What we know:
By secondary structure, the protein is mainly alpha-helical. Helix content is 82%, strand content 0%. It contains five helices and no strands. It has helices at residues 2-40, 47-68, 76-79, 84-119, 130-160. Helix 1 runs antiparallel to helix 2 (47-68), helix 1 (2-40) runs antiparallel to helix 5 (130-160) and helix 2 (47-68) packs parallel to helix 5 (130-160). The two termini are 14 Å apart.
Amino acid sequence: MEMIKRPLHITEKIMRVIAAICLAGMAAMTGADVFLRGAFNTPIFGCEEIVAILGVVAVGFALPYAHYQKSHIGVEILVRRLPKRVRETIGLLTNLATLALVSIITWRMFLYAGTLAESGEVSMNLELPEYYVVYVLSFGFFVYALCLLADVVKFFGKREA
Length: 161
C-alpha cells in the first residue's frame, strides 16, 4: 500500500502547486486585462479563454488536495453524534459512491476529449484545441478517483489489522 500511496501523494503535491499557479495566473490575467481596458482601452485578446482554461485546470488539479484536507461538504452536526463505527461506515459508503461517480465522470470525459480531438474543435478566439483541456481535467478526476480508492483500501486494511 505504501508503494502506491507515496507516488499518489507526490502527484497530489505537484497538482496542488500547478493549481495554485493557475489560480495566480487567473488573477494576474484578469488584473492586467482590467488595467489595460481602463488605462489604454485595449483588452488582452483571448483573456476570457485563457482565464477559463486556467480555471478548469485549477479546479481539476485541486480535487485530490481538497479530498486529503477533508474540505468537502459534510453534515457534521448529525454525523459527529453517531458512534465511531457508524461514522466510519458512512465515510466508507460516501467514498464508494463518490468513487463510482468520479470513475464514470473520468471515463466519459476521456472519451469526450477523444471526440473533440477527432472533430478538431478549437476555442473561439485563440483557436486552441479544446481536447487538451478536457484531457487535463480528466487526469485530475482520475487522480481524485485514485485518492478515493486508496482511502477505501485503507479502510479495509485497518479492519484486518
